Amino acid sequence: MSTLNKMTVIGYVGSDPENRTTKSDTSVANFSVATSESWKDGDEWKEETTWHDVVAWAGWADWVSDKVKKGTYIRVEGPLKKETYKDKKGVERSSYYIKATHIQRMGSNSSGGDSEEE
Q1: Pick from 22, 81, 82: which is nearest to 57 by CA?
Q2: ∠ CA(97), CA(102), CA(106), 5° rounding?
Q3: Closest CA to 12 of 111, 107, 97
Q4: How would you classify the pairing of strands 73-78 and 92-99?
Q5: Rounded CA gap, 98 and 64, in Å?
Q6: What is the pLDDT of residue 116?
Q7: Considering the entire predicted model, what is its pTM?
Q8: Where are the domains of the chain?
Q9: DSSP letters along the chain, please?
Q10: Which residues of the chain register pLDDT less than 50?
Q11: What is the rounded CA–CA span in Å between residue 54 and residue 36?
Q12: What pLDDT does 108 receive?
């Protein structure tokens, strides 16, 4: 039996992406995407926002650097990755992020919803 690790989120970029280059000259872009869920609780509407960390590498990082900024309505696909590290007190912590394998700008602020295959 096979398995699948694939996340798809469609939402708004929370802040301008942080772009950098590794020591081996590979481009990396880090950004977060907000998704929201709303529901009615009695007579009152409630809303919950979830933030998704995204890491884009190489060609996708360059594309993000050129095409994505705070507020961009975007679709991101890729596997969910776990990063384990030790904090300043030496306590082991984990964080999760989406390793972008496909990115597409969506909607009216996308100039046509362009995308690029890596």
Answers
A1: 22
A2: 100
A3: 107
A4: unpaired
A5: 14
A6: 47
A7: 0.84
A8: 7-110
A9: ------EEEEEEE-SPPEEEE-TTS-EEEEEEEEEEEEEEETTEEEEEEEEEEEEEEHHHHHHHHHH--TT-EEEEEE-EEEEEEE-TTS-EEEEEEEE-SEEEE-SGGGTTT-B---
A10: 109-113, 115-118
A11: 17
A12: 59
Q: How far apart are CA 13 and CA 53, in angstroms?
A: 10
Catalogue the long-range contacts made by 78-83 (C-beta closer than 8 Å, 24 or more residues apart). 78/6, 78/7, 78/54, 78/102, 79/5, 79/6, 79/7, 80/5, 80/7, 81/55
The residue type of 14 is G
Q: What is the pLDDT of residue 33?
A: 98
Q: What distance in Å separates the CA atoms of residue 9 and residue 52, rounded to the nearest whole number?
A: 8
Top CATH class of 7-110 equals mainly beta
